[in-house]
C-alpha cells in the first residue's frame, strides 16, 4: 500500500470513527443532528467552512430522504471520497439500527395485546406525530394555498389508503406548486459553496440509476416473488419519496408493511415510538421492521435500501446544485410537495395512529400531557417516549 492509499485509509477511518461517536450520542431528531454535525465537523475538526456546510444542508433539504444522514454522507464524501461517504453513513446509522433490531426481537417475545408498556408506546406515538404535524404545518402550510393543498392531500390519502396514492398526491402537489407558486419563489443568488467534486456525467448516471430503480423494482417484484426483494422495493421507495423529515416515512411505510403482515399495526407504532428513544437517524426504524419481518437479513436489506436513494441523490446532485438553487420552478414544486406531506402526515396521525391508540378519555388525557411536554416544555422526544413507556408499565402493574 503506497503513501497516498495509506493517507486515504486514515481519512476514511477518521470519518467512520467520528460518525460512530455522533451516532452514539446524537439524540433529538434531524435538526439537533445538524447542530451536532456543525459543532463537530465545522467548529471542532474544521473539515469545511461554515459556508460550505450551510450550502450542503440546503442541498439536502431540497432532496427527499433523511436530511441529517444525507449531510453526513456529503461530509464523508467531501472528506474521503466514496468510502468516506459510506463510513460516515455506517458510523452514524449503526448504533440505532442495532438497538432497534434488538427491540424488534424483544417485542416479538414480549407479551403484547393490551400490555401497559405497549399502550404507553402507542400513546407516545400520537403525541410525537401530533407535534411533528404542528411544527411542519407552521413552516410549510401557513399560507392559504399551502393549507388547502395540505388538507386536500390528507383527504385524498384517507380515502385511498395505499402507498401509490401517496406517491400520486406528492407528484400532483409538485405540479401544482411548479405552476401556481413559481412567481412567488425567489431564486437564490448566493454562490454555491459545495465544490464540484463529481463530473456531471457521473452525477447524471447516479440520478438515472435512482430513477431506474424507483420504476423497475416494483415491476421486478411482480415477476420474482421473493420476500427480501419485496422488502427492498418497499423501503427503497420510502427512502426515495419522503420529503419533510423522518416523521413522514411513517405513513409511507405503514401502507407498505402492515398490509403485507410483516408487522401488526400495534407492533409498527410501538417500534416507531422506540425509534424516538434511540440516537441517530429515525430512518433506522427500517431495521426494526426488517428484523421483525425476516430476521437479520431483513434488517440488513431494509436498512440498506431505505438509505440507498440518499447516496444516489446526494452524490448525483452535487454537480447540478448551482442550477437547482437558482431555478424558481424547482423551488416552487418543492413548496407544493412540502405542503402535501403535511397533509399526508396529518392523515397518518388520524389513521392508523389515533384510531389504534386513543380509545377513551384517559388515553386522550395521556396524549395531551405528552404533547404538553413536547410542544410547551420542550422535552426531547426520547424522554417523552421513555416516560410514556414507564407510565404504561406502571399502569399494567397496578391494575
From TrEMBL:
Pfam families: Chromate_transp. It is a multi-pass membrane protein. The keyword Ribonucleoprotein does not apply. Keywords: Cell membrane, Membrane, Transmembrane, Transmembrane helix. The chain crosses the membrane at residues 20-38, 86-109, 115-134, 141-158, 164-181, 202-223, 235-253, 274-294, 300-320, 332-350, 370-394. It is found in: Cell membrane. Its main location: membrane. Belongs to the chromate ion transporter (CHR) (TC 2.A.51) family. This is Chromate efflux transporter. It comes from Geobacillus jurassicus. The gene is chrA.
Amino acid at each position: 500500500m503506497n503513501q497516498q492509499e495509506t493517507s486515504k485509509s486514515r481519512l476514511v477511518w477518521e470519518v467512520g470513527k467520528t460518525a460512530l461517536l455522533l451516532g452514539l450520542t446524537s439524540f433529538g431528531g434531524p435538526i439537533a443532528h445538524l447542530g451536532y454535525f456543525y459543532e463537530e465537523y465545522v467548529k471542532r475538526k474544521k473539515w469545511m467552512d461554515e459556508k460550505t456546510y450551510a450550502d450542503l444542508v440546503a442541498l439536502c433539504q431540497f432532496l427527499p430522504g433523511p436530511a441529517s444522514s444525507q449531510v453526513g454522507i456529503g461530509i464523508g464524501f467531501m472528506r474521503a471520497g466514496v468510502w468516506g461517504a459510506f463510513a460516515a453513513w455506517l458510523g452514524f446509522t449503526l448504533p440505532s439500527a442495532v438497538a432497534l433490531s434488538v427491540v424488534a426481537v424483544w417485542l416479538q417475545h414480549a407479551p403484547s395485546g393490551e400490555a401497559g408498556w405497549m399502550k404507553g408506546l402507542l400513546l407516545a406515538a400520537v403525541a410525537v406525530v401530533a407535534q411533528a404535524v404542528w411544527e411542519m404545518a407552521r413552516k410549510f402550510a401557513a399560507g392559504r394555498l399551502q393549507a388547502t393543498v395540505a388538507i386536500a392531500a390528507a383527504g385524498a390519502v384517507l380515502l385511498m389508503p395505499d402507498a401509490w396514492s401517496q406517491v400520486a398526491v406528492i407528484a400532483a402537489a409538485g405540479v401544482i406548486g411548479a405552476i401556481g407558486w413559481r412567481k412567488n419563489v425567489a431564486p437564490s443568488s448566493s454562490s454555491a459553496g459545495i465544490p464540484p467534486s463529481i463530473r456531471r456525467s457521473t452525477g447524471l448516471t447516479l440520478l438515472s440509476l435512482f430513477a431506474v430503480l424507483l420504476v423497475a423494482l416494483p415491476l421486478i417484484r411482480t415477476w420474482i416473488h421473493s420476500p427480501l426483494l419485496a422488502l427492498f422495493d418497499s423501503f427503497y421507495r420510502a427512502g426515495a419519496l419522503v420529503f419533510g423529515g423522518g416523521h413522514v416515512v411513517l405513513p409511507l411505510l405503514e401502507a407498505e408493511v402492515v398490509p403485507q403482515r410483516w408487522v401488526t399495526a400495534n407492533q409498527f407504532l410501538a417500534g416507531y415510538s422506540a425509534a424516538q428513544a434511540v440516537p441517530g437517524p429515525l430512518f433506522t426504524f427500517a431495521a426494526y421492521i426488517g428484523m421483525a419481518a425476516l430476521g437479520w437479513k431483513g434488517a440488513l436489506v431494509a436498512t440498506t435500501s431505505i438509505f440507498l436513494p440518499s447516496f444516489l441523490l446526494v452524490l448525483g446532485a452535487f454537480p447540478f446544485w448551482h442550477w437547482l438553487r437558482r431555478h424558481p420552478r424547482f423551488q416552487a414544486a418543492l413548496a407544493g410537495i412540502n405542503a402535501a406531506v403535511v397533509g399526508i402526515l396529518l392523515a397518518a396521525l388520524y389513521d392508523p395512529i389515533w384510531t389504534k391508540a386513543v380509545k377513551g378519555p384517559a388515553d386522550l388525557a395521556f396524549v395531551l400531557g405528552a404533547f404538553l411536554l413536547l410542544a410547551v416544555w420542550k422535552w426531547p422526544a426520547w424522554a417523552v417516549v421513555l416516560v410514556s413507556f414507564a407510565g404504561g408499565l406502571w399502569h399494567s402493574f397496578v391494575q
